[in-house]
Amino acid sequence: PPVMDEFSAHCEDMNIELGGTPATDLKLAGGHTRTQFIALRDDIQAKITAEEGLENARQILATSRDAKKVALRERLGQFRGMLRAVLPQSKYAAAAPVVPDFSTSESKFLAAFDDAADLWGRIDADTTIPGFTPPLVIGAFARAGFVADIAALRADYSLLTTAENDLELGQKERDVLLPVARERMVQYRAAVPALLGPTHPLTQSLPDVYPQPGSTPTPVVLSGSWNPATAHADFSWTESSNP
């Protein structure tokens, strides 16, 4: 959009040079006018702005999902500990699922908790265990809460998938407009010197579609390290010399 703004401002001067009336305004292939170019620019900007909201929605859901994953992993660890402490000689202790790695795929991650919920239900229904009276409770936490937490995590996975699809679709809708805008700017750069000649001030002041060679800023220096407390990578980089 900023580059399109440059072309729009230049085209305004160009139209004045050509006569300053709708009849004399510069028209590109297919009768494309400055007004249509501005509408295209606004459409692209709207897609970019909407993308920020879609990305925020995705990030919020990812954070919610990850928090539920952490809580469930801790709860499964407690469940396994209770089986070792309360039912060490029973058939259930050996059947407890292993706590899945945090990065395990959705299906395998959820499978471990579905397994534990099923096992917990069998324990609660078993009145034949010597020295144990069901249900199994971890503090004040019963199986129903565990099942509800699994359902909440599964819902977050589903919502996150939808949010990721919405974001990808929004990006595609934006990207399909960019070649159209670029082609219009290329056409405009060809039309101005064709109409006014190579030495006219408006020809000499044509905006660039692409940055000039050598305009790439000096690279910044990136460093990063793993933060075990947050289970995230922390990155930092030097300030760019180019504003």
The share of residues in helices is: 55-70%
SSE pattern: HHHHHHEE
The main pleated sheet reads as: 2 strands, antiparallel
Rg to the nearest angstrom? 31 Å
What general form does the structure show? elongated
Number of strands: 2
Q: Strands across the major sheet, in which order? A: 1-2
The residue ranges in which pLDDT falls below 50 over 5 or more consecutive positions are: none
Termini separation comes to 18 Å
Mean of the pLDDT scores?
96
Alpha-beta classification: mainly alpha
| DSSP strand content | under 5%
The tally of helices reads 6
Short summary:
The protein contains six helices and two strands; from the N terminus they run ααααααββ. It has helices at residues 2-18, 34-86, 106-125, 143-175, 178-196, 201-204; strands at residues 222-227, 232-237.
Could you characterize the architecture of this molecule?
By secondary structure, this protein is mainly α. It is built from six helices and two strands; from the N terminus they run ααααααββ. Strands 1-2 form a two-stranded antiparallel sheet. A hairpin with a 4-residue loop joins strand 1 (222-227) and strand 2 (232-237). Helix 1 (2-18) packs antiparallel against helix 2, helix 2 (34-86) packs antiparallel against helix 4 (143-175) and helix 3 runs antiparallel to helix 4. The longest helix has 53 residues, at 34-86. The chain is elongated. The model has no long low-confidence stretch (mean pLDDT 96).
